[in-house]
Amino acid sequence: MSENSNQNSVVSVRTMEIIVAILFLIVGLVVMTGSVKLGAKWGSDGPESGYFPFYISLIILISSSITLFQAFKDKEQADESFVEKEPFSQVMSVLVPAAVYILGVQLIGIYVASTVYIAVFMVWLGKYAIWKAAAVGVGVSAALFMMFEFWFQIPLPHGSLINPLAFIGLQ
Taking the model in full, what pTM does it have? Predict the structure, then answer.
């Protein structure tokens, strides 16, 4: 691997394998613990509730342990890049706003958060004019509001912190 590629690397393959193996070990232990509490034996009338999850978690634990052992043993992957800075920043440019959107759905409701999310993405990544982005954001959210709230009569999240739709008399 070239020197330039190592300088652009955010994380190595070896590091990611270790992190994922540890996360799967944790998941396996949590599932196994829950399975034991449910009953992971073969009862008189067949398997208890935790029987199959116990053995699936056992397979996950064994596989993760092998992966972790191999990741520590293989020193060559320490130099191999898992992701470089440019692709990582592109993923983060979508992931961070998506996380903020999810928080927005909880705090101000899905319709207002969706309007802002759509408009911001159209202006920021799509390079659309602000008026076009605002029109599409409001239009999509209004259509979803009409479809879910009135036609299907399925209420979607309106916001726990503040309900902006209540200010304009829609809730």
Answer: 0.64
